[in-house]
Specification:
seven-stranded mixed β-sheet, alpha+beta, 3 helices, about 160 residues, Jelly Rolls, about 40% strand
């Protein structure tokens, strides 16, 4: 016995709806402990010509999966920690704050290590596009407000060591 056309159509619709719901179901976040970590330093040259070096420990978002997650789902970030997103080759990078529960400062870093743009206090959970506006070789994310607190500005330099694999 064949199902009637309306019943078959309903079954098809139900199958498609179930597949759509499954596709929307969030995947389990990666454990930040699985990300490589390294030391990173921001060198700031103050108006009085003094040089200040600010060390950070950062997670390295070195795979597409790590970069996609970034600092999503993190509920607290100490001022001494952050995340760096290396970009090879350099490109215009667009970020967002989807599933990011805390404010972040984003420092866009050119291939020569110079900060080209800073977005301070990026709004948690926002889907707004945050763009580097120019080609960059990395993005550094820090706790919201840290860049202003330290007086960081465009032209400062960022250096880090590639973590051992």
């Amino acid at each position: 016995m064949q199902p009637s056309r309306p019943r078959a159509a309903l079954a098809t619709i139900a199958t498609l709806a179930a597949a759509a719901l499954a596709a929307q179901e969030p995947t389990r976040p990666l454990d930040l402990a699985s990300f490589p970590r390294t030391s990173l330093e921001v060198t700031h040259r103050a108006a009085d010509h003094t040089t200040h070096r600010y060390p950070f420990t950062v997670w390295v978002a070195d795979t597409p999966e790590r970069a996609e997650q970034g600092l999503m789902f993190v509920s607290d970030l100490p001022e001494s920690l952050g995340m760096v997103f290396p970009l090879d080759p350099p490109r215009v990078e667009n970020m967002w704050m989807k599933n990011t529960y805390i404010e972040l400062d984003m420092l866009f870093v050119a291939a020569d290590g110079r900060v080209t743009k800073i977005i301070g206090h990026a709004h948690p959970m926002s889907l707004d596009t945050l763009s580097s506006d120019a080609k960059v070789a990395a993005v550094l994310e820090l706790k919201g407000g840290v860049a202003a607190k330290l007086g960081l500005r465009t032209g400062d330099t960022v250096t880090w060591k590639k973590p051992a694999t």
